[in-house]
Every structure is written in structure tokens, then in C-alpha cells.
Automatic annotation (TrEMBL):
Protein name: Valine--tRNA ligase
Record's keyword terms, sorted: Aminoacyl-tRNA synthetase, ATP-binding, Coiled coil, Cytoplasm, Ligase, Nucleotide-binding, Protein biosynthesis
Originating species: Sinosporangium album
Predominant place of localization: cytoplasm
Gene: valS
Domain Methionyl/Valyl/Leucyl/Isoleucyl-tRNA synthetase anticodon-binding: residue ranges: 614-753
InterPro entries attached to this UniProt entry: aa-tRNA-synth_I_CS, aa-tRNA-synth_Ia, Anticodon_Ia_Val, M/V/L/I-tRNA-synth_anticd-bd, Rossmann-like_a/b/a_fold, tRNA-bd_arm, tRNAsynth_Ia_anticodon-bd, Val-tRNA_synth_C_sf
Keyword Protein biosynthesis among UniProt keywords: yes
Length: 873
RNA sequence: GGGCGCUUAGCUCAGCGGUAGAGCACUCGCCUUACAAGCGAGGGGUCACUGGUUCGAACCCAGUAGCGCCCA
């Protein structure tokens, strides 16, 4: 057995343990051992069969790095999969990354810009080659972070969304959707980023309340004049109508007439449309079909022309004076020109309104009319909703399911083409005469055809993640064994976009089998004041920094200890230090057990051969084990961590270890077996939360290879022992009371005091030795002359404090206790005197109150007597 | 504008019908041979507000206020 230092040094053990786990293949899943039955996450029963338990890691963006939110997400998955392995499941935790089309391309373009180059200077092929180089570098950093965290992922199955196999999956499903008529090409208004120069889907647009302007403009003159309000005056150059509500009396006479569009001299019609809100502004709206999604719909209904007035960079392309101006320069210029003509009726500035921004670069998104590829999501979204409605997939916590339904039940068609170079190229080829051919993975395009230059949205490939990573479309052993996955662990922030997409594709590709049995959602990591972490605020925690300073176990434990289902996690430096202290506590307690010959090998004796202390801690262990299992079922990691923290520290360390010392000194050899058993179980229970420290200690304790392959403890109900729990509870109570007296009296902890205990006939009778030792009470000599007398639950303790006792302190104490007892007596008396209460409250509640009253009255009598007996002053 | 959630000790959060809890922070005393990253003791809360239901409400219901998130 190696000597353990008195302080746990995480850095010494973490790298070593991790490398050993990997080299021994503990993380590597074996589908051959998995039955196809599947198992509920958490697992209801410990089964003899190697039932599969599978989790796919939500793939981080290859171009980023792991932040503390990832650390939380990973800690949860690691805890679940480590426990599943210990429970005997054929366990897979599959890692990987996604190619993050826009983000990655942006990063590499920025690099190029430093060299004074653009991607066009390199050309598509060379640029993509360059992105792959960056991917290796950036991805490697993430892998290093995962190892530091201790992630027990199956590295042999690491995947990347651009891998050949996953690319084949993309092409396969594209072809299937295309052939089923669920992918189509159409000219629509899409979200366009004029900086990234690509289309975006709805979810890649972030809305914020921004300050803008609301300008009211008079179109036409005299009788025929009509006033419209807009936040985007520059788009008036592309107006092709004014719309009013058909029932709006103010404008009824104008419907069907034409009005002159200022600055342009064009005549545009006034049309009636149900979708105009008569209550908003003047009730008349300008219609710019090429630059607004709502206007586009109005245009379609009324067969209006679309006039595009900006190019892909947001530069005005029409009407002399404004030609070449950026859209934000054009806006004031257009307003000024209108004002010069006396057409500005009102201006409101600043005007708060919702503005969409590119989620990648924050540029204001421009609604743009363009030809793009779309997925018709209606049948897919319906299926995705139904799978949750009928319980094939459970969203946890269930309150969040509503958000999922809100999204999938009202989903717009999904724009999947991106004008980028980095990504999966759209597998559609165009013939010389406008023919369109979708090419499957094993097919060749006809000669002379040209492939669509665009690539697919990254979410298109990450939506396939739960099965493309397992080998789909091939019928692999992994797919058979591990799909559907047991649980998806992710933040509630991407519930609707990523999760919904995986649900849609999984159900579509896998014959109605959803990709997960459970979606377990966690919250965001926040700082100690509940504030969002942000670079500008300077409150960001780097997980690697914490791992270095407090250890990976402490970092993980801090996160898990705050992880209540679906709610945010607040963390701080001080709590990380607290977790480190806890690891150190476990370290030293186990060190104590080892130094005292804790024995794991031999079986535990029957209860009859054990002391009450032994039976008590084993009873507590059984309860705690059962509670931990129950908490895992509900993904209540905070509860798991809390249960084990308190059991380990308050019960095992503070009491059992102290009692065990006394038993060992008295020659109770079986204590070593109990110590061994308790620490063995405790370390195994803690292992999923704190893998490194538990591995190091457990190997020393057991002499076995690795705690990773040890069995998960089972709650032994036969060890539940109410008698022992009551007995030790009484011991704790007595000891605490006497310690309180000692503390009040200013007696130093180490100072020995003579005392007479009368424990005859009480449950404490067999614990006199422990009580005297823990309280440092000597046997009374013949000359014993007590100076103080305490009564604790009918046990009388007389002490000779050697010298005058602090009467004032004692009086204060007694008066405080007396006040508490009186309050208690008054409360219970009021209840017992209440006829309604006596008539309607359940018997056990009445009995409890009665017992409380009896106790309170006894306490009052005792305390009053003690106060009366105190010397004056 | 629509929807959801939150408000409990200084801070972060549990508790969700029957005596208000935890961690950290705070006060006092201790190097008591596993651990000072520790040990012992202690102080601290009209459970946002107003009504209602109930024998009994932090907990259930209604309303009010403040905060947060999502969607438009």
C-alpha cells in the first residue's frame, strides 16, 4: 500500500488515471455485449443482461473551446455513463464535434485577412483545405479539455460531422427527403447576413430590442394621399403597393386606386389585405415584397411585382442618388430627400423595435428574396411532436415539454442552403437545359451537369448525430445496439432547435424510432450572483483554470451540486474551494481507514455481532444508497451530490470515524470490516461525480484494478435498523448538549473534566465509553464535587468544572432554552385545545403534537428548576 | 404584444399541506496524532405583498408588485 500524503493533490493523479482508463479500454463500448432490449436511463432494475446504455455527446463546435457550460453538460453525462457502467450496462458515450459552417469559415477568413487574402484569392479547393488544417488544430484543443475533465468517452468512436461516413449519411437523407418531395427549391424571403454573405435559418437569427426610428411618410397628394409608417425608410424605393385593411372605413374609397411613390415617380396600387392591422400606426402599410417577409406574402396574394433594391452586401442598387450607398447610409439619405419634398409627416426617434441579428457575427439581418433550398417540415415536425406526446421520448423536467411543443407545432419550413464553402455540398446537379438531378451517395451525376455551389446548414448534419455517428445508413452493430440512445443531456436553450431537428430526422430515418428515450435538460451556468457569464462582464470561469487550481473532481462536483433539473447553476470560486475541501476530506478519511486496517476483502459480519454504531452507519448507508438511486432516476444531480456530501462528512467522518476509533482501541476487530465496507461503498457512490480522487483511494483500499469496473452499490434493506439509529441519535444528542455546555462555559476542547453519568436503564448505557471519550469526561474521583448538573432527555450529567462556573452564561443559555420550550408548549397547547384540529387532523399528527407538548412541559419544569438552583448574579 | 418561470438566512439554492433547511459567508473557542483544504459551539429568516381555501399554508387558489427567460 503506497503512503498517501496528508493533502490530496489532484494534478498528481488525474493525468495518470485518465491515461490508464483509456489504455485499459474501460471507455470502449462493446455492442456485442448489448442486448437489443434497451433500458430506461438511470435504469430501473439492475439486470443481469448487458443491457445497452448509450449517450451521444452534443457535439461542440470544432472552432470553439469548451466553456464552463460544456463542463456542466459533460459532468452530467460522465456521471450517468460511469454509473451505468458500474451497474453492468454495455455503455457507450460517444464524443465528437460539428463543423460549424459559418463560425469556422469566419475564423479562417479572418486568419486569411491578416495575410491580406480573401477566400476567393485561394479558390474553393485550397480554402477548404485550409479549413481542414484549422479544424485539426482547434479540435485538438477541445479533445485535450475533455481529457482534463475526465470525460469517459469512447475515443475509438469519435466522430466529426464532415467525416466520410457522416457525409454519406447527409447525402443519403437528403436524397430520401428529396425523393419524398420534402426538399424543394424556391424563391423566398430568407434571412440574409450581408457580412457572412449567406442565408440563415430562423434559429440563426437573434432578436433584440434596438433603437431605431419610425418615420411617417405621405404617399400621393390631396384627396388621394395616404400616410404610411416605417422603420426602414430606404426600402420605400422598392415599394410596389400600399395595403390597408378591407374593412377600414378611412381608406375604403382608395382601394383600387393608385398613388405616386415619392422620389421614384412610380405609380403603385392601394390594395386591401386582411393581414393589415388597422390599429397599428395609420392603418396603412407600405408593401416591399422583395425586402420583408410579410410584404412578400401580401405581394403573392395580390400578384405584385418584387423590386430588389439592395445587393447581397446591403448596398442600394437602384435610383441614382442613392445608388451605391450602404443600407444604413441610405436610410437617413432617403428620409432627408423625402423631407425636402415635404413628405415626412412624423418622426419618432429613438423608436424601440425588434431587430434580427446574425447569431454568428451580430450583423443586422436583411430579409432577402432569393432562390434557396428548403425542407418541408410539416410531416417531420408533426412526428417529432407526437413522439413526445405519446411518451416514446420523455422530456425532463416535464415543464419544459411545452416549449418543445410550441416550437415543433409551429415550425416554418427550414432554409438549408448556405452560401458558404465549408460544409456538405448540396448533392444536386443542374443540366444544361435547367434539368435538376439529386444524386445519391453511390450515384454519378450525368456528364456535363454542374453541382449546386451551396452547402447545407450545419444543423442539417448535426440533426443526424444520434444515428449517423453509429454508422447509419449502414446497418451496423452499433446502430442495432445503441439506437435509440438512452438519454440526451443538453441545455434547455437548444431544446427546440437542435433537439427538435434530431427528433425529426431520427424518426424519419429510423422508421419512427425517436433518437432518445429521455431528453434531460439542464440550465445555464451563472456566476455567484446569478448573473450570466460574459466576457465583457469579466465573470467568465474557465474550466481548465479551476481544474488546475482545485482539481477536476472539485470542478465537476461544484457544477453537479448546483444542477437541479432544468434550472440554472450558480457557481463561484468559494464553492469550488468548498468542493476541493470535500475531496480532501474524503481523501483524509479514507487515509484514516487505511491506516487503521480497513478491510474490504472479508464479508461483513451479521448484525448480531456488530455494535450499535456499526449497525447505525450501515443503516444510514443503506438509506443513502437508496436515496441516491432515486435521485438519479429524476436526474437530480444536486440531490445526489448533497446526499453524499452530508453522509460522508456529517455522518461518516464526524461520527462514525470517531466512534470507530474508540471501538478499535477497545479491540473490536470487526470495526475494520465495517470501515472497509462503508468506505468501499462511499467511494463507489461518489465515483461518477468525482472520478479521480475516488479511483486513487479505492485502488489503495481494495488493491483492485479500478473503481471504474467495480459494481455500483446496492441498497441493502436488511441493514436498515431503526433501533440503532435511535440509539446513536440519542448519543449524538447527549454529546452535542454537553459540548454546548462546555462551549458556553469556556472550557477548552482539550480540557478534561470529571463527570458522573447516570446512564442505567437508558439506550445510552452501552455507550458510556464513547461518550466519555468524545466529551473528555474523566471518571469521578471519591472526592467528586459537581459544580454543574445537566439533564438531557432524562439523562443526568454532573460535572466538576474545577472552579466557579460562568453563571451569567449559564443563565442566558437556560433562559433561551426556556423561551423556546415555552413557545413550543404554547403552540402545541393551542392546537390540542382546538376542537376542529382534534376532530379533523389525522391521528399521527395529533399524537406528534401531544408528544411535543409533553416534552415541552417537561423541559419547562426542568429548566425552571435549573434556573432556580443557579446562584444569584 | 403572447407565453413560461422565479421571489425562502448576507449570497446561491433545497423544501411544495402538519415544529423553517443546506452550502458558502459571519461570531466565539481550539494545531483534540485522518484531515487547519481541519475540529467543536453559536448567531441569523413576519418564506415578496394582499386576499381566499383549510383544523392547519413557505407549500393550494386568485390578484398585485418586482425580476428573469423564450417567442413575436
Amino acid at each position: 500500500m503506497p503512503e498517501l500524503p496528508t493533502q490530496y493533490a489532484p494534478a498528481d493523479v488525474e493525468t495518470r488515471s485518465y491515461e490508464r482508463w483509456v489504455s485499459r479500454g474501460y471507455f470502449t463500448a462493446d455492442p456485442g455485449e448489448a442486448s437489443s432490449a434497451g433500458v430506461e436511463p438511470g435504469g430501473a432494475e439492475q439486470s443481469g443482461a448487458r443491457e445497452p446504455y448509450s449517450v451521444v455527446l452534443p457535439p461542440p463546435n470544432v472552432t470553439g473551446s469548451l466553456h464552463i457550460g460544456h463542463a456542466l453538460d459533460h459532468s452530467i453525462q460522465d456521471a450517468l455513463t460511469r454509473r451505468a457502467r458500474m451497474r453492468g450496462h454495455a455503455t457507450l458515450w460517444l464524443p465528437g464535434m460539428d463543423h460549424a459552417g459559418i463560425a469556422t469559415q469566419n475564423v479562417v477568413e479572418r486568419e486569411l485577412a491578416k495575410e491580406g487574402l480573401s477566400r476567393h484569392d485561394l479558390g474553393r479547393e485550397a480554402f477548404v483545405e485550409r479549413v481542414w488544417q484549422w479544424k485539426e488544430e482547434s479540435g485538438g484543443r477541445i479533445l485535450g479539455q475533455m481529457k482534463k475533465l475526465g470525460d469517459g468517452v469512447d475515443w475509438s468512436r469519435e466522430r466529426f460531422t464532415m467525416d466520410p461516413g457522416l457525409s454519406k449519411a447527409v447525402q443519403t437523407i437528403f436524397k430520401r427527403l428529396f425523393d419524398d418531395g420534402l426538399i424543394y427549391r424556391a424563391e423566398r424571403i430568407i434571412n440574409w447576413c450581408p457580412r457572412c454573405l449567406t442565408a440563415l435559418s430562423d434559429i440563426e437569427v437573434e432578436h433584440s430590442e434596438d433603437e431605431g426610428e419610425l418615420v411617417s411618410i405621405r404617399y400621393g397628394d390631396g384627396e388621394a394621399a395616404i400616410i404610411v409608417a416605417t422603420t426602414r425608410a430606404e426600402t420605400m424605393l422598392g415599394d410596389t403597393a400600399v395595403a390597408v385593411h378591407p374593412a377600414d372605413e378611412r381608406y375604403r374609397h382608395l382601394i383600387g386606386t393608385e398613388v405616386e411613390l415619392p422620389l421614384t415617380g412610380r405609380m403603385i396600387p392601394i390594395v386591401a389585405d386582411e393581414h393589415v392591422d388597422p390599429a397599428f400606426g395609420t392603418g396603412a402599410v407600405k408593401v416591399t415584397p422583395a425586402h420583408d417577409p410579410n410584404d412578400f406574402e401580401i405581394g403573392r396574394r395580390h400578384s405584385l411585382p418584387s423590386i430588389t433594391v439592395m445587393d447581397e452586401r446591403g448596398t442600394i442598387t437602384v435610383h441614382g442618388p442613392f445608388l451605391g450607398l450602404d443600407r444604413f447610409e441610405a436610410r437617413p439619405a432617403v428620409v432627408a430627400a423625402l423631407r425636402a419634398e415635404g413628405r415626412i409627416v412624423a418622426e419618432k426617434r429613438p423608436y424601440l423595435h425588434a431587430v434580427g441579428h446574425c447569431s454568428r457575427c451580430k450583423t443586422v439581418v436583411e430579409p432577402r428574396l432569393s432562390l434557396q433550398w428548403f425542407v418541408d417540415v410539416s410531416p417531420l415536425a408533426k412526428a417529432a411532436g407526437d413522439a413526445v406526446r405519446d411518451g416514446r421520448t420523455r422530456i425532463h423536467p416535464p415543464e419544459l415539454a411545452k416549449r418543445y411543443f410550441d416550437w415543433v407545432d409551429d415550425m416554418h419550413d427550414w432554409c438549408i442552403s448556405r452560401q458558404l464553402w465549408w460544409g456538405h455540398r448540396i448533392p444536386v446537379w443542374y443540366g444544361p437545359d435547367g434539368e435538376i438531378v439529386c444524386v445519391g451517395p453511390d450515384e454519378q451525376p450525368p456528364a456535363g451537369y454542374v453541382q449546386d455551389p451551396d452547402v447545407l446548414d450545419t444543423w442539417f448534419s448535426s440533426g443526424l448525430w444520434p444515428f449517423s455517428t453509429l454508422g447509419w445508413p449502414e446497418k451496423t452493430a452499433d446502430l442495432a445496439a445503441f439506437y435509440p440512445t438512452s438519454v440526451l443531456v443538453t441545455g434547455y436553450d437548444i431544446l427546440f432547435f437542435w433537439v427538435a431537428r434530431m427528433m425529426m430526422f431520427g424518426l424519419y430515418a429510423m422508421d419512427g424510432q425517436p433518437p432518445f428515450r429521455v431528453v434531460a435538460l439542464h440550465g445555464m451556468v451563472r456566476d455567484q450572483y446569478g448573473k450570466k457569464m460574459s466576457k465583457s462582464f469579466g465573470n467568465v470561469v474557465d474550466p481548465l483554470d479551476w481544474i488546475e487550481r482545485y482539481g477536476a473532481d472539485a470542478t465537476r462536483f461544484t457544477l453537479l451540486r448546483g444542477a437541479n433539473p432544468g434550472s440554472d447553476v450558480a457557481i463561484s470560486e468559494e464553492w469550488a474551494a468548498g468542493s476541493r475541501n470535500f475531496c480532501n476530506k474524503i481523501w483524509n478519511a479514507t487515509r484514516f481507514a487505511l491506516l487503521n486496517g480497513a478491510n474490504v476483502a472479508a464479508p461483513l459480519p451479521d448484525s448480531a455481532e456488530l455494535t450499535a454504531s456499526d449497525r447505525w452507519i450501515l443503516s444510514r448507508l443503506a438509506s443513502v444508497t437508496a436515496s441516491v438511486d432515486a435521485a438519479y432516476e429524476e436526474f437530480e444531480f444536486a440531490k445526489v451530490a448533497d446526499l453524499l456530501y452530508h453522509f460522508a462528512w456529517d455522518e461518516v467522518c464526524d461520527w462514525y470515524v470517531e466512534l470507530a476509533k474508540i471501538q478499535i482501541a477497545a479491540g473490536h476487530e470487526h470495526t475494520k470490516l465495517v470501515l472497509g465496507h462503508v468506505f468501499d461503498a462511499l467511494l463507489r457512490l461518489l465515483h461518477p461525480l468525482a472520478p479521480f480522487v475516488t479511483e486513487e483511494l479505492w485502488r489503495a483500499l481494495s488493491g483492485a484494478e479500478s473503481i471504474m469496473v467495480a459494481e455500483w452499490p446496492t441498497a441493502d434493506a436488511t441493514r436498515i435498523d431503526a433501533v440503532a439509529e435511535a440509539e446513536i441519535g440519542a448519543v449524538q444528542n447527549l454529546i452535542t448538549e454537553v459540548r454546548r455546555f462546555r462551549s458556553d462555559q469556556g472550557l477548552k476542547p482539550g480540557q478534561r473534566v470529571a463527570a458522573r453519568l447516570d446512564l442505567e436503564g437508558t439506550p445510552l448505557a452501552s455507550h458510556e465509553r464513547a461518550i466519555r471519550t468524545l466529551l473528555r469526561l474523566d471518571e469521578p474521583a471519591d472526592s467528586f464535587a459537581p459544580t454543574a448538573r445537566l439533564t438531557v432527555a432524562s439523562v443526568v450529567v454532573e460535572l466538576d468544572t474545577v472552579g466557579a462556573i460562568d453563571v451569567a452564561a449559564e443563565r442566558k443559555r437556560l433562559e433561551k432554552d426556556l423561551a423556546t420550550a415555552r413557545k413550543e408548549a404554547a403552540q402545541s397547547e393551542a392546537k390540542l385545545g382546538n376542537e376542529q384540529f382534534m376532530a379533523k387532523a389525522p391521528d399521527d399528527v395529533v399524537a406528534k403534537v401531544r408528544a411535543r407538548q409533553t416534552q415541552a412541559l417537561a423541559d419547562i419544569a426542568r429548566l425552571e428548576a435549573q434556573l432556580a438552583a443557579l446562584p444569584a448574579g
